[in-house]
Amino acid sequence: METQTASPKTSKKTEKKKVVPTITQKSIEDFAIRGVRQENVKYIHQVKDIHLFDNTFRVNVWCCKPQADRLVDKMWIEASYFIELTSSGDIVDLTKGSK
Fold this sequence. Notes:
Blueprint: H1 25-32, E1 44-53, E2 56-65, E3 74-85, E4 91-93
Antiparallel strand pairs: 1-2, 2-3, 3-4
């Protein structure tokens, strides 16, 4: 008995690889910290950016405050932004209600 293997189909369409724009962590942090209340700056734990689509990102500023009477520290998102990275590398705030 002879077995035949199917040849892989070749597509005439070429697949486009999406290029994810990059933002330096320093520029994200400098931008994001402006929305943190002064008394909470010392509690900043992490500034996290998440690529959403095209040149847009969600940026969250996480804070962590030790709790002496608790087993777990208090954690919260102090500021959150919806931003766009322009072709020149500038950050544009698209957050609803931002000025």
